[in-house]
Amino acid sequence: MVEEEPVDVLIIGAGASGAAMAWSLADTKMHIVCLEQGPLMNPLEYPSTGRNWEARSQSDMAINPNQRSLPSDYPINEDDSPIKVANFNGVGGGTVLYAGHYPRFHPSDFRVKSLDDVADDWPIDYDDLAPYYGENDRMTGVAGLAGDPAYPRDNAHRLPPLPLGKSGQAIAKGLNRLDWHWWPSDTAIITEDYDGRAHCINLGACGSGCAQGAKGSADVTYWPHALRAGVELRTRCRVREITVGDDGMATGAIYYDGNGDEQVVKAHVVVMACNGIGTPRLLLNSASEQFPDGLANSSGLVGKNLMFHPYAWIQGVFDEEVDGYAGPTKAIRSQQFYETDTDRGYLRGYTFEISRGMGPVRTAQTGMRHGMIPWGADHHDAFRRMYNRVAGMVAVCEDLPEEHNQVTLDPDLKDGNGIPAPKISYTLSDNSRAMLDHAVARASEILAAAGAHDIMTESPISWGGWHLMGTARMGNDPKRSVVNEWGRSHDVKNLFIVDGSIFVTSAGVNPTSTIQALALYVADQMKSRLANLFD
Fold it and tell me: Could you give all domains of the chain from N- to C-terminal order, each with its CATH number?
């Protein structure tokens, strides 16, 4: 075991939040080290550079770590959940595989308790994050269109919006016939050359890594700037535990390097950016005599209140050809049913994200699963009737926090270094089920109005656990939260958390933009308090 002199700041995780935090803190000229258990990806090796891209999106570049089973992955026991985890371990984290849908929270999303008497209000509000949303948009490169009447006031820096494509145009006509809201999406995919990156060329395999570099994954947005500013990034380093001193302060971490050798890094400040599953796993694995229930867990809430965003998937077949898989996945959104209307039979709401079609392999799999493509003589004709003719949407449903939805440590399952793996226990609430049913019914109306037929639905999407939130929540009360209003642990004064685990509520939109805005906000709070950071 090799010990080093303490670094100023140790960041664990090089994904969306870790990258933003590293870049923001770099201007302090402190010695900042980031440990990432995965590699730095080579875009030339992404699936979209080869003809086998669909096969690889279900093997070594699958969204589920149990399916990928790469050396950088850790197994997850998800038997006790109808929704399976989607993440990625590598520089850029989940942004390597995300679709780049990049909405902000609404102001109402920070005041759920006040407005609807459920969950809790955040200790911060939209106006606190607004400047950081804007800064994050500039760093990432966001395409979109200002003026959305359903959306909050913003200061977004936007490139021209993505083209709607044939799919977007068809479904927009259906929404227009129903007189329902829609708007071009804010998307982290650049439509013009930006910050040294080339614009989107419609490769279409956004969900398995963008070889063009047009998609704003953190490895091509924040990390080049952070590295040039002097941040030290160590890859293939799997952290086993965060260490603490006799005074109860974090002292660094023990990790395994790429050779499997145990190493120690000491630090004055530790920042966790491991996502809503990895962060509670590491905190629980860092139990000690001083913290017998896990580090920073005097509230008992580490790992509790897991929120996923239940997704509904609704697609239809059109008589005319649409786009197939060509182009970015998301071009428009509808927030017609975003805010609470108690007449609908549930609280809170959801966003429709309009999606293009599917590649040939997925078209065949989907058609067979839904009984529309048979084996035998009619197989190829039925496939031709579906291919390049399917379009639809997903509904991103707000998931309310419930303590029984949680991440714990599995008593038997371990990763390749012998570290206990996480176990997910999650059930859908009655509120979520009612919201999903409403979304499926309304989406079916949209598709029918757009001229689609043979409508296919899945609700919830079993493999759709992309959004990992709530398991180390933010709050003013140490008995009801894990970190305070600026991301610092109530229990360990030099320990910070900046990933989706600090979310109080989930809203009805993709969380990445808010995760990164929060990381920039926490970084600024840290910088403004450097003189008395440990008081």
Answer: 7-45+53-147+161-357+389-530 (3.50.50.60)
- Please tell me whether residue 231 adopts helix, strand or coil conformation: coil
> Is the predicted pLDDT of residue 331 greater than 90, yes or no?
no
Q: State the greatest distance between any 2 C-alpha atoms of the chain, in Å, as a whole number.
A: 75
> What is the number of other CB atoms lying within 10 angstroms of the CB of residue 122?
23
Angstrom distances, CA of residue 342 to CA of 274, 318, 339, 348, 440: 36, 34, 10, 9, 18
Q: What is the pLDDT of residues 113-135, one digit of tens each?
A: 999 999 999 999 999 999 999 99
Long-range contacts, 137-140 (Cβ 8 Å, 24+): 137/102, 137/513, 139/20, 139/23, 139/221, 139/222, 139/225, 140/102, 140/188, 140/216, 140/221, 140/516
Burial class (CB in 10 A: 0-12, 13-18, 19+), 493: middle
Cα 507 to chain centroid distance, Å, stands at 13
Q: Is the N-terminal amide bond of 82 cis, ω within 30° of 0?
A: no
pLDDT in tens, 182-196: 999 999 999 999 999
CA–CA gap between residue 90 and residue 76 (Å, rounded): 17
Q: Are 282 and 239 in contact (CB under 8 A)?
A: yes
Beta strands at 158-159 and 7-12: parallel, antiparallel or unpaired: unpaired
> Which residues does 12 contact at the CB level (< 8 Å), separation at least 6?
18, 34, 35, 239, 242, 253, 270, 271, 272, 273, 274, 282
Can you say how many angstroms the Cα of residue 39 is from the centroid of all Cα atoms in its chain? Answer: 19
- Phi, psi torsion values for 509, nearest 5 degrees: -140, 165
pLDDT for 534: 60
Residues 502 and 517: their CA atoms lie apart, in Å, by 12
Amino acid in the structure at residue 461 = I
pTM: 0.96
Cα–Cα distance for residue pair 321/71, rounded to 1 Å: 41
377-429 pLDDT, tens digit per residue, is 999 999 999 999 999 999 999 999 999 999 999 999 999 999 999 999 999 99
